[in-house]
# Entry
Amino acid sequence: MFMHNKRLQYTVRVAEPNPRLATMMLEQFGGADGELSAAMRYFTQGLAEDDAGRKDMLLDIATEELSHLEVIGSIVAMLNKGVKAQLAEGLMEEAELYRTIGASGVSAKESLLFGGGPALIDSAGVPWTGAYVDSRSEPTVDLRSNIAAESRAKIVYERLINITDDPGIKEALGFLMTREIAHQKSFEKALYAIEDNFPVGKLPGLEKYANIYVNTSQGEGDMTGSWNSGAQWDRIDDLTQTMPIDGGAGTATVDLDHSDAKVLDKLALRTLSNPAVNPTTGVDLGAGPGAGRTTEADFGGAASIAEAPAMGEANAPT
# Structure
């Protein structure tokens, strides 16, 4: 059961309305790395969690994320107070109201549909979607995803702090950013409280492939480090000598029953290409300057290659 406390978790003090800044703040309201996404991610994980400790932690943090949604939504609402009033009452002249909204950087959807209120959209006006919730109901997977999500959210808050000189907003955003750090610490502790947390899931990796590093991007800029060299790695540099890595033929095959094989033979025969012909095509018939080399058929089966006119030359008949 939820009960709403009318006091915010952190006091919101906005110096003056700023619709353009409000639009940017929506990234943390209805965006992919915003507070609603975090709350829904952790709630769904917590409800499915069987471990009592992780369940309690996830529901605690999920509920706090809703309080953060309230803080960032209140900032958006305060920043939009002026434009909301003008849109609702229409006291400005038409041209002045149009200019004010246009100059603010607020999207038409935010202004006209939502009236300047905090909507579940991101800074580009894209509606929030459940696709932002990437839970897999496997704690070693979800906790790593949560750590990354908190890291991404912190970076977004840093960037929002950098684009405002409003001291009250900076303070509130600094609080929200710092809570992302705290949540990451909790998720890391929970992850490493699982004794065998890597590799994720139940099945072990195949030992003969688990220590291989494949150097597939070769040339200037090749680097070595602990991530691709040393006793931990069997490094492959000569791909031509080692691929396919399983020692097989490196082809794709399937065993078909007799009826499927017979139908497949008919399909192959019907769609067979003849490499001996050089047909005249629509490209040849409509070729103009810049078309490159085209086919010139002599109707006797043989074909020759003709150069198309150079760029700028008239299209001479053949």
Summary: Residues 299-314 have pLDDT under 50 and may be disordered.
